[in-house]
Amino acid sequence: MIPLGTAEKPTKVRDKLTDLEGTVLARAEYLYGCVWISVLPKKLHDGKPLAEIWVDEPRLEVIVEKEKKIKKVIKKEKYKETFHRYGPSPSPPSRGPSLRPEKTDG
Question: What is this structure's pTM?
Answer without folding.
Answer: 0.56
